[in-house]
Please model this.
Amino acid sequence: MPWLAGYPREKIDWFPEIDYSQCVKCGMCMNCGRKVYNWTDAGPLVKHPYDCVPGCTTCAVLCMKDAISFPDRDYIRKIYKKNKVWLKVREALKKEGKLTIKKGGNNGN
Ligand code: SF4
Ligand code: SF4
Model:
């Protein structure tokens, strides 16, 4: 996953949690392109939590009843900083030819 540049996804507890007392079963979260949710009689179930893209919050933003939550963004930013993920992503992008950085640019960590 390019967002991680080889850092193990299962080491990042970033995935949606549903407050079923708020969920009105509108179905919007089922649009997740990563197929994180399965639909059940009780509403959406977070079936594949580690397929959620680290840092993504689209389903929570578009949930009509604010029933979906995620960890604080500082949680994931600390992991990225401690493990130099930003730097590794930059190097990976350079190798793929998607990024060119002139000398003196920000080193990303
Ligand atoms: S988007 Fe929110 S309200 Fe709609 S089904 Fe999903 S969790 Fe429930
Ligand atoms: S945050 Fe993004 S990737 Fe994760 S479940 Fe919601 S829409 Fe899918």
